[in-house]
Amino acid sequence: MTIKQSVLAAAIASTLTAPAFAELVISEYVEGSSNNKAIELLNTGTSAVDLTAWELQVFYNGSNATGLTINLDGTVAPDGTFVFAHSQSDPAILAVADQTTGAGLFNGDDAVLLLNGGVVADSIGQVGVDPGSYWGDTVRTQNQTLRRRDGTNADNNPDDAYDPAVVFDSFAVDSFDDLGNGAGDGGEEPTDPGLPDMACGNPASLISDIQAPVMSARLLVKIWLWKPS
Ligand SMILES: [Ca+2]
Ligand SMILES: [Ca+2]
Ligand SMILES: [Ca+2]
C-alpha cells in the first residue's frame, strides 16, 4: 500500500471507529462574586440541538442526591452557544443569557451535571464528594471563570476524581467577556493573518513594457534570417 493509500485508509478507519461524543459540552463555567454564576454550553456537533431533553443538575456540598434540576429550553445551532445564568447576576451576564433561574446555583463545592435524556453528557466536580471549598488547585471551581480548551473531551463520569485543569483554563473572578462565544483555548479567537504585504519596493511594470522588447528581439532575428545573401 502506498503512503497515500495508508493515510486514506487510516482516515476512513478513524471516521468509522470515532466514538459518538455528546453534541453539547460545558464550554464555560463562571463562579464569580455574589450571584455571578453562569454555565455556557457549546454545540460541537454539525446539526442544531433541541434542548427539550437536556437538563442541568446541581449536587450540593457532597450530596448524592440531586439538589436542583433545570430543564433547558431552546435550540443551539452548530458551533453556537447557550448561556444559562442566575437571574440576579451581573448585567453583562444577563445581556448574553439565554435562560436564567432565581434558584441558588453553585459556589465551588457543588457538582454540576449536563444531561441528555437522563444520561450524563458532561460534568464538573465529583458527585457525593465534598472537596472543601473547591475542586482543583490553581485552576479551581471557586472564584474563577473556567473556559474549556479546544478539542478536550466531555466528562461523562461524575463519580470519579475531578480536576478542572484537565480541560479548563482559568480566568480572573468575574470575567464575563467570553460568555456566548464558544471558541476554545480560553475563548481566544484566532488572529486574522490579513493579506500578505504585496509591496516589493519597485513601481509596477506594465506587461506591455516587458513584452515589447521580446517582440522587438524576435523581429530582429526574423529580419536577420531573411537577409538575402
Ligand atoms: Ca455549595
Ligand atoms: Ca469526572
Ligand atoms: Ca465562552
From TrEMBL:
InterPro entries xref list: Lamin_tail_dom, Lamin_tail_dom_sf
- Renumbered to this chain, the signal peptide range is 1-22
Q: Does the keyword Signal apply?
A: yes
What sections of the protein cross the membrane? none
Q: Where is this region: Disordered?
A: 140-160, 179-200
Instruction: Respond yes or no to whether keyword Signal is given for this record.
Output: yes
Which Pfam families does this entry report, sorted A to Z? LTD
All residue ranges annotated as the LTD domain in the record: 12-128
Q: Which PROSITE patterns does the UniProt entry name for this protein?
A: LTD
Keywords of the record: Signal
- Matches recorded under PANTHER family: ENDONUCLEASE/EXONUCLEASE/PHOSPHATASE FAMILY PROTEIN (AFU_ORTHOLOGUE AFUA_3G09210), ENDONUCLEASE_EXONUCLEASE_PHOSPHATASE FAMILY PROTEIN (AFU_ORTHOLOGUE AFUA_3G09210)
Record protein name field: LTD domain-containing protein
Q: What is the lineage of its organism?
A: Bacteria, Pseudomonadati, Pseudomonadota, Gammaproteobacteria, Pseudomonadales
